Every structure is written in C-alpha cells, then in structure tokens.
C-alpha cells in the first residue's frame, strides 16, 4: 500500500517570500509519479508540478520547484515569490506507473499574507 | 475550458433516496475514470476505479452496493449513491486520463447534501 504524509496542516508566508511544503511517502514501487496539486476555495484540483521517479533532475515550473529525494522518499514543494493567488490547499500525491489512481496526502493549507 | 465535467455541481436529496452524479470526459475517450470523496478540510480518498465495459474496482471499506458505479461509454461514468444517508454528504470528484496516461484531469466536483 502507498501512503503519503504531509506533516504541516497549515502554513503561512509573506507575499514575495519563499515557502517550502513538506511531503514524504512510502511505497515498495521503484518507478512512480509524484505530484503537487493545488485546491483553491473553488475546490477545482489544479496541477502544480509533476515528477517522474526515474528522473533524478528536480522538476521546476516557473515559481514552483521540487526537492525530490528518492532514497529518503521525500518530495517537498518550494514556492518562490509567493503571490496572493497561491493561497490554497496543497496536496502531495503518489501514482503508480501501472494505474492512474492517486493516493493523496492530508494536505497543507497555505496562506499568503499581503 | 474543462476537459472533465461533472454534473450536478450541487445536489440536495432526502434521506433514503438515490442520487446520480455524472462524470464526462470532453473531447477524449477515457477507458478508466476514478471517483474520490473529500470530507470538509480533509484529503481526497479514492473510492473506486471505474472501468469502461466492466465492473468497477472498489477500495477497501467502500460499499459497492451503496455507491454504484457505471461506466457504460468511453466518455461517461456515473456514481449513484443509493439509499442516501446524511453521513454520505460530501464532495465527490472524478478524474480521467488520456491514453498516454501522463495527462490526468479532474472534474469540478459535486457537492452532495443529504437531508
């Protein structure tokens, strides 16, 4: 079974500053995908960034980047130059290569303070 | 625009009745769709995998007779909550993927309130 753990239920950051959200996971799979999703108050799930486990290079997407440590099973999200629109719930998620079902962490509520 | 659409976005039903939620893939065919449930301020929990033309695969602890899933076409999966109870009130979200499996879309979600 796959488990995803987010140890920070709530976080806040000053606008324009940088914040890092933590995520750890447990799996016996060797190849898989990891994701960060953003869920604003509208509840729509929005993909932030994706990482393939077989790629050593950390994924980046504009202001968003990850620190993927496969041996430690850690997958943190760094948001640079935080903007008010970044305020949302952030979910870390795991997906096996052989299926498209997600296993989500418990989420981190991020508030960007003006 | 949305590539996976759910309907209705909000529904209120009486205890004991059944309610159906639709998940449609727009502009693409999805042999597999997934249904998730999200309680307030909690994470998304996978309920079941909906397979076109065959029976759904349910996660442990999910009552298959209560949450009926039908995937009759490549663009439509339905979740029917039977004999609804107030504890079934929740936010339900579906997802679908393109055949390359690398692109996954979520629906907008459906709020169910059972009174």
Descriptive key words:
A: 114 residues, mainly beta, six-stranded mixed β-sheet, four-stranded antiparallel β-sheet, globular, B: 115 residues
Class per helix and strand makeup of chain A: mainly beta
The tally of helices of chain A reads: 0
- Through-space gap between termini of chain A: 41 Å
Distance between the termini of chain B: 33 Å
What coarse outline of chain B follows from CA principal-axis ratios? globular
Main beta-sheet strand count, sense and barrel state of chain B: 7 strands, mixed
Major sheet details of chain A: 6 strands, mixed
User: How would you classify the helix and strand content of chain B by structural class?
Assistant: mainly beta
Mean pLDDT of chain A: 94
Strand content of chain A: over 45%
Cα-atom radius of gyration of chain A: 13 Å
> Which regions of chain B contain 5 or more consecutive residues with pLDDT less than 50?
none
Low-confidence stretches of chain A: none
Concise overview:
Chain A is mainly beta and 114 residues long. Chain A has strands spanning 3-5, 10-14, 19-21, 24-26, 32-39, 46-52, 60-61, 64-69, 74-79, 88-96, 102-104, 108-113.
Could you characterize the architecture of this molecule?
The complex is a heterodimer of chains A (114) and B (115). Chain A is 0% helix and 54% strand. Chain A is built from no helices and twelve strands. In chain A, the strands form three sheets. In chain A, strands 2, 5, 6, 10, 11 and 12 form a six-stranded mixed sheet that branches. Chain A has a four-stranded antiparallel sheet with strand order 3-9-8-7, with no helix packed on it. In chain A, strands 1-4 form a two-stranded antiparallel sheet. By secondary structure, chain B is an all-beta fold. Helix content of chain B is 0%, strand content 53%. Chain B starts with a strand and ends with a strand. At the A-B interface, β11 of A face β4, β5 and β9 of B.
């Amino acid at each position: 079974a796959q488990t995803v753990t987010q140890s920070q239920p709530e976080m806040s950051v000053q606008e324009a500053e940088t914040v890092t959200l933590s995520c750890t996971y447990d799996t016996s799979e060797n190849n898989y995908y990891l994701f960060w999703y953003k869920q604003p108050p509208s509840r729509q799930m929005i993909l932030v960034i994706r990482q393939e486990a077989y790629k050593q290079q950390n994924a980046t997407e504009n202001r968003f980047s990850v620190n993927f440590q496969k041996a430690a099973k850690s997958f943190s999200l760094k948001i640079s130059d935080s903007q008010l629109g970044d305020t949302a719930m952030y979910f870390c998620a795991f997906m096996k290569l052989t299926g498209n079902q997600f296993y989500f962490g418990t989420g981190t509520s991020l508030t960007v303070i003006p | 625009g949305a590539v996976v659409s759910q309907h209705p976005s909000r529904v209120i039903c009486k205890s004991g009745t059944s309610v159906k939620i639709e998940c449609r893939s727009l502009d693409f065919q999805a042999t597999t769709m997934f249904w998730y449930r999200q309680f307030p301020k909690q994470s998304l929990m996978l309920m079941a995998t909906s397979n076109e033309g065959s029976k759904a695969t349910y996660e442990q602890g999910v009552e298959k007779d209560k949450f009926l899933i039908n995937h009759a076409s490549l663009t439509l999966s339905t979740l029917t909550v039977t004999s609804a109870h107030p504890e079934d009130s929740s936010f339900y979200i579906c997802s679908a993927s393109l055949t390359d499996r690398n692109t996954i879309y979520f629906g907008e979600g459906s709020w169910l309130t059972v009174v």
